[in-house]
Amino acid sequence: MEELTEFIQSNPDPRELRRALAVRMVLQKYTYLEIREVLQVSIGFISKWKHAFEEKGVSGLALQHHGSKGYLDAQQRQSVMIWLQQNHHWNLSELQRYIQEAHGVTFASNQSYYQLFADAGILSKKHQDQRSAIEFSCLEQELDPYDAWINSDLPLLQQLQQPVRQ
């Protein structure tokens, strides 16, 4: 139990912390239902990490995967940013072709390409149209376009903050 408490106090990754807290609560004789309610985890989660702790101790609670190395190194990424900023129009297939031809890299997910667009400060066509409409409206009303852009997404942000009903 002391090793577990030290692990919790060492400020581990939130996923590891949740695992450790579930195990500690089991050891403190909380019921699985109480733990589920407090930590918002499943009964299977509690059982899995209790068993991992019994088998391997605290090391059984640690993350086993630490992510993968990015496909583009810093210099390659910078060249992509420059290329994107020099173009007057953008589309996904052109970006994919450029990265493949220039750097020999093909991302598994389109999300990686979209992230490059976002990092270069490039909005999608839909967002460009929305932003133009907001900026035009702001000019008429003498408002700050940035505040209006942020506030236009306020209902969506509020909806995302609503608790999930089960």
Order of helices and strands: HHHHHHHHHH
Shape: elongated
User: Total domains, how many?
Assistant: 3
The percentage helix is: 55-70%
- Nearest-angstrom radius of gyration? 24 Å
Spatial separation of the terminal alpha carbons: 34 Å
CATH class of the largest domain: Mainly Alpha
CATH topology description of the largest domain: Arc Repressor Mutant, subunit A
Total number of helices: 10
User: What's the architecture of the largest domain in CATH terms?
Assistant: Orthogonal Bundle
Low-confidence stretches: 156-161
Approximately how much beta-strand content do the residues carry?
under 5%
What is the average of the pLDDT values? Answer: 78
Q: What is the number of E strands? A: 0
In this structure, how is the largest beta sheet organized?
none
Structural class: mainly alpha
